[in-house]
Amino acid sequence: MSSRFEAGSGGGRRQVRHPGPRGSWAHAVEVIAENPAGGRRRELYEGDIGIRVLSYGAEVRVTVPPSPDSYQIYLLLRGTGKVQVEGERIDAPSIIVGPHEKSGMWWSLDHEVLIVQIPSALVERTLADRLGDPPERPPRFRPAIIGDSTFGRLLTMVSSAGAGGRPPFMASPSAGHHFERFLLHTLLDSQPHDHSAACGGIDPAPGPAALRRAQRYCEEHAAESVSLRDIAAAARIGVRTLQHEFRRHLDTTPLAYLRGVRLAHAHADLVRMAGTGAQVTVTEVATRWGFMHLGRFAGLYRERYGRSPSSTLYGSR
C-alpha cells in the first residue's frame, strides 16, 4: 500500500506521527528544503512487525524521542543521511535504535528510507526462548549494522522483495509468521548485543579494537581507492598483524572483507535503481564501487546473490 506523505509546507519544525504495529509515535521534524515531488509512505508488511518505505518529501532533520517499547531499524535506500544514537555519530549502511535510546537524523532532499519497527516484547520473548528464562532487560544491540553482515543482507533482501510490489512474506498469515521468526532469530544471531554470548550468537565485541577500526575504515571508504597499507594505517597496526587479525576473527582477508562491503553497496544501488527506474548501467554501478573488471564483478555478484547484476537492475522493468 502506497500513499502520499507530506512533512508540511514551508520550513520550520513540526510534529509528525508515524504509524507502527503497536500504535504511533511522534517525531520532531525540521524541514530544510522541500522536494516538489512530495513524500511517500509505502507499507511493505504489517504484522507484529511493521516494515515501510518512507520519504518525507523534503530535506529534513528528525529528532526521534526514545521509544519505551520498540526497536527501530533504518536502512537508507536512496539519497544520503547522517544518524546519531545517544549523541554518537553512526557510520554504517543501516542502524538499530533500541528502547529508551534517543536518536536524530538528517536526510537529504531525495532520500528514501526502509524502516523496520519491532516491539521489544517480541524481541525479549524470542530471546527468552533461546536463554530458557526471560532476560532482566531488553537486549541492547550495537547500533551500527554492517551491510555485509547476515542481518544487513537480510534487510537488503527485504527492500529488494518489496521493490517489485507485494513481498512474498505477505502471501499469507502463516508466511508472515515464519518471516517474523526468521527476522528475529537472524537479528539475535548476527547483530551483536549484550546477551550474545549467553545465547550463542556473536560476541558483543568480536576481535580487538584494531579490527573494529579496520572494519569501520572499510565501510567509510568503500567507494575510494584503498590499499592494504591504508587499512593497516587506519587500524594503527602493521600489515602482517592486520592480516592475522582478520584471519583469526573473521576467517577472511582485509581486502576480501573490503570487496564484500563494496559488493553489498553495489547490490543496494542496483536494487534502488531497479525500484526507481533510474537510467544507469551495471558498469556504472560496478565502477562506482571499485570493480573495474565487469566479468569478475558479475561472477562475484552471482555467487553471493544468486542472480546476475543485470537481472537485479532490469528484471522488474
TrEMBL record:
Domain spans labelled HTH araC/xylS-type: 212-315
Keywords of the record: DNA-binding, Transcription, Transcription regulation
Coiled-coil ranges per UniProt: none
Domain of life per record: Bacteria
Pfam families according to UniProt: AraC_binding_2, HTH_18
Gene3D superfamilies associated with the record: Homeodomain-like (1.10.10.60)
Descriptive protein name: HTH araC/xylS-type domain-containing protein
